[in-house]
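Readers of this paper often ask what the protein records in our data store actually look like. The remainder of this section carries one protein's record, kept here as part of the documentation.

:::
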Amino acid sequence: RHGRLLTIHPRLETSDRHDIRLVHEVVQDAVNITGMTDVPWERRTRLLSDNGPGYISRSFGEYLRLVGIRHILALPFHPQTNGKLERYHRTIKLDVNQTPYDVPGNLELAITEFVNYYNNRRYHKALGDVTPSDVLDGRREEILERRKEVQTQTFQRRRLYNQQLESSRNQHEVSISIVSHCC
């Protein structure tokens, strides 16, 4: 599982977006980035897409079988099926669209920086509060185990501190009561 790793590709013009070669390039790029062909077939990621002509063509289906990707077609007129992608679009719009860009290069840079942040520094609750890069690089379990160790040590220190504080309070109360009886 590659856990929400984002890749960005140049926006395809409306007339080009059904060109199967471009769709193949995008999927092949994702396969190369994730190293997915090294993962056993039953654990490989799946491609969720809409029902656009480029995605339902026979050659695209054959290509996906060749690289070992299972294909899931979203239900027509049902945006909830593509919920993760829709949420990503909302997130990037909230982040990147806050600034007006005069030069296309500035917008491209902002998008590149956002993708870097999203993949390498933004913790994802659904992934156990690790980054997509942590999942891709196989660090997730190690990070979660280390967090558990730190949590256990913190609880032990807190318990010891609270015990010492309680003991100190009890000794203070005893000394006050002795002083008040004496005088």
In short: The two ends are 74 Å apart (CA to CA). The chain is about 60% helix and 5% strand.
